[in-house]
Design brief:
162 residues, mainly alpha, two-stranded antiparallel sheet
Protein backbone atom coordinates (compact mmCIF):
# COMPACT_ATOMS: atom_id res chain seq x y z
CA UNK A 1 0.00 0.00 0.00
CA UNK A 2 1.37 3.40 -0.99
CA UNK A 3 1.57 6.05 1.71
CA UNK A 4 0.91 9.69 0.82
CA UNK A 5 2.01 12.99 2.32
CA UNK A 6 0.58 16.47 1.92
CA UNK A 7 2.37 19.10 -0.18
CA UNK A 8 1.64 22.66 -1.20
CA UNK A 9 2.37 23.88 -4.73
CA UNK A 10 4.78 26.86 -4.60
CA UNK A 11 3.18 28.43 -7.70
CA UNK A 12 -0.60 28.23 -7.12
CA UNK A 13 -0.76 27.21 -3.44
CA UNK A 14 -2.83 24.12 -4.24
CA UNK A 15 -2.91 21.32 -1.68
CA UNK A 16 -1.98 17.97 -3.20
CA UNK A 17 -1.16 14.49 -1.92
CA UNK A 18 2.01 12.80 -3.19
CA UNK A 19 3.54 9.38 -2.46
CA UNK A 20 6.15 9.47 0.32
CA UNK A 21 8.89 7.92 -1.83
CA UNK A 22 8.74 10.70 -4.47
CA UNK A 23 10.91 13.84 -4.20
CA UNK A 24 9.77 15.57 -7.39
CA UNK A 25 6.06 16.34 -7.85
CA UNK A 26 3.77 17.83 -10.46
CA UNK A 27 0.88 20.01 -9.30
CA UNK A 28 -2.48 18.60 -10.38
CA UNK A 29 -3.97 22.14 -10.48
CA UNK A 30 -1.44 24.22 -12.44
CA UNK A 31 1.05 21.61 -13.76
CA UNK A 32 4.08 23.14 -12.02
CA UNK A 33 6.97 20.84 -11.20
CA UNK A 34 8.53 21.22 -7.75
CA UNK A 35 10.69 19.35 -5.28
CA UNK A 36 9.29 18.04 -2.01
CA UNK A 37 11.40 17.45 1.08
CA UNK A 38 14.70 18.34 -0.60
CA UNK A 39 16.03 21.34 -2.45
CA UNK A 40 16.49 21.27 -6.19
CA UNK A 41 20.29 21.51 -5.81
CA UNK A 42 20.35 18.41 -3.60
CA UNK A 43 18.15 16.55 -6.07
CA UNK A 44 20.39 17.52 -9.00
CA UNK A 45 23.54 16.55 -7.06
CA UNK A 46 22.11 13.12 -6.20
CA UNK A 47 21.05 12.67 -9.82
CA UNK A 48 24.56 13.63 -10.97
CA UNK A 49 26.21 11.09 -8.64
CA UNK A 50 23.72 8.43 -9.70
CA UNK A 51 24.55 9.11 -13.36
CA UNK A 52 28.29 8.96 -12.58
CA UNK A 53 27.85 5.63 -10.81
CA UNK A 54 25.86 4.33 -13.79
CA UNK A 55 28.65 5.35 -16.16
CA UNK A 56 31.23 3.70 -13.90
CA UNK A 57 29.07 0.55 -13.77
CA UNK A 58 28.93 0.45 -17.57
CA UNK A 59 32.70 0.92 -17.79
CA UNK A 60 33.20 -1.96 -15.33
CA UNK A 61 30.97 -4.21 -17.43
CA UNK A 62 32.90 -3.23 -20.55
CA UNK A 63 36.21 -3.85 -18.74
CA UNK A 64 35.05 -7.32 -17.68
CA UNK A 65 33.95 -8.18 -21.21
CA UNK A 66 37.24 -6.90 -22.65
CA UNK A 67 39.35 -8.90 -20.16
CA UNK A 68 37.35 -12.06 -20.85
CA UNK A 69 37.83 -11.65 -24.61
CA UNK A 70 41.58 -11.23 -24.08
CA UNK A 71 41.70 -14.40 -21.99
CA UNK A 72 39.72 -16.27 -24.66
CA UNK A 73 42.25 -15.14 -27.28
CA UNK A 74 45.08 -16.48 -25.11
CA UNK A 75 43.41 -19.92 -25.06
CA UNK A 76 44.07 -20.51 -28.75
CA UNK A 77 47.80 -21.35 -28.50
CA UNK A 78 47.46 -23.81 -25.58
CA UNK A 79 44.65 -25.57 -27.45
CA UNK A 80 46.88 -25.87 -30.52
CA UNK A 81 49.72 -27.23 -28.37
CA UNK A 82 47.33 -29.73 -26.78
CA UNK A 83 46.03 -30.82 -30.16
CA UNK A 84 49.57 -31.19 -31.48
CA UNK A 85 50.45 -33.35 -28.47
CA UNK A 86 47.47 -35.61 -29.11
CA UNK A 87 48.42 -35.94 -32.78
CA UNK A 88 52.01 -36.82 -31.85
CA UNK A 89 50.71 -39.47 -29.45
CA UNK A 90 48.55 -40.91 -32.24
CA UNK A 91 51.58 -40.98 -34.49
CA UNK A 92 53.42 -42.88 -31.74
CA UNK A 93 50.61 -45.45 -31.68
CA UNK A 94 50.98 -45.89 -35.45
CA UNK A 95 54.74 -46.41 -35.04
CA UNK A 96 54.12 -49.03 -32.35
CA UNK A 97 51.69 -50.90 -34.59
CA UNK A 98 54.28 -50.72 -37.36
CA UNK A 99 56.77 -52.47 -35.06
CA UNK A 100 54.41 -55.43 -34.74
CA UNK A 101 53.51 -55.64 -38.41
CA UNK A 102 54.42 -59.02 -39.94
CA UNK A 103 56.47 -57.38 -42.67
CA UNK A 104 58.79 -55.52 -40.27
CA UNK A 105 62.34 -56.81 -40.39
CA UNK A 106 64.14 -57.60 -37.17
CA UNK A 107 66.99 -55.21 -37.91
CA UNK A 108 64.55 -52.24 -38.14
CA UNK A 109 62.80 -52.92 -34.83
CA UNK A 110 65.35 -51.04 -32.67
CA UNK A 111 65.05 -47.70 -34.46
CA UNK A 112 61.24 -48.03 -34.62
CA UNK A 113 60.98 -48.69 -30.89
CA UNK A 114 63.26 -45.72 -30.17
CA UNK A 115 61.16 -43.57 -32.53
CA UNK A 116 57.97 -44.68 -30.77
CA UNK A 117 59.44 -43.88 -27.33
CA UNK A 118 60.58 -40.44 -28.43
CA UNK A 119 57.23 -39.78 -30.10
CA UNK A 120 55.30 -40.75 -26.96
CA UNK A 121 57.58 -38.60 -24.80
CA UNK A 122 57.19 -35.54 -27.03
CA UNK A 123 53.44 -36.08 -27.25
CA UNK A 124 53.07 -36.34 -23.47
CA UNK A 125 55.16 -33.19 -22.98
CA UNK A 126 53.00 -31.20 -25.41
CA UNK A 127 49.78 -32.47 -23.85
CA UNK A 128 51.06 -31.57 -20.37
CA UNK A 129 52.08 -28.07 -21.49
CA UNK A 130 48.72 -27.49 -23.18
CA UNK A 131 46.74 -28.66 -20.15
CA UNK A 132 48.82 -26.59 -17.69
CA UNK A 133 48.45 -23.42 -19.79
CA UNK A 134 44.70 -23.92 -20.12
CA UNK A 135 44.34 -24.45 -16.36
CA UNK A 136 46.32 -21.23 -15.69
CA UNK A 137 44.02 -19.33 -18.04
CA UNK A 138 40.97 -20.84 -16.34
CA UNK A 139 42.24 -19.64 -12.94
CA UNK A 140 42.90 -16.20 -14.42
CA UNK A 141 39.37 -16.18 -15.90
CA UNK A 142 37.81 -17.05 -12.54
CA UNK A 143 39.91 -14.49 -10.64
CA UNK A 144 39.24 -11.67 -13.10
CA UNK A 145 35.56 -12.49 -13.34
CA UNK A 146 35.03 -12.67 -9.58
CA UNK A 147 36.95 -9.42 -8.89
CA UNK A 148 35.01 -7.39 -11.45
CA UNK A 149 31.68 -9.07 -10.62
CA UNK A 150 32.20 -8.13 -6.97
CA UNK A 151 32.69 -4.47 -7.91
CA UNK A 152 29.66 -4.57 -10.20
CA UNK A 153 27.39 -6.11 -7.55
CA UNK A 154 28.52 -3.56 -4.95
CA UNK A 155 27.88 -0.67 -7.32
CA UNK A 156 24.49 -2.04 -8.39
CA UNK A 157 23.47 -2.26 -4.71
CA UNK A 158 24.55 1.35 -4.22
CA UNK A 159 22.58 2.47 -7.26
CA UNK A 160 19.45 0.70 -6.06
CA UNK A 161 19.88 2.22 -2.60
CA UNK A 162 20.40 5.78 -3.89
Amino acid sequence: MVEFRPAVCPRCGGNIQIPTHIDKAICTYCGATFFVGIKKEEFEREKYFRDEKSRYLNSLKWERENKMQNINKKKILPRIVLLFGVLVLLFGVIVVFTCFAPTTEAYSLGPLIICAAITFSVGIIFVAIGISQLSKLKKQWIKTSSEVDEKIKKLEKELIGV
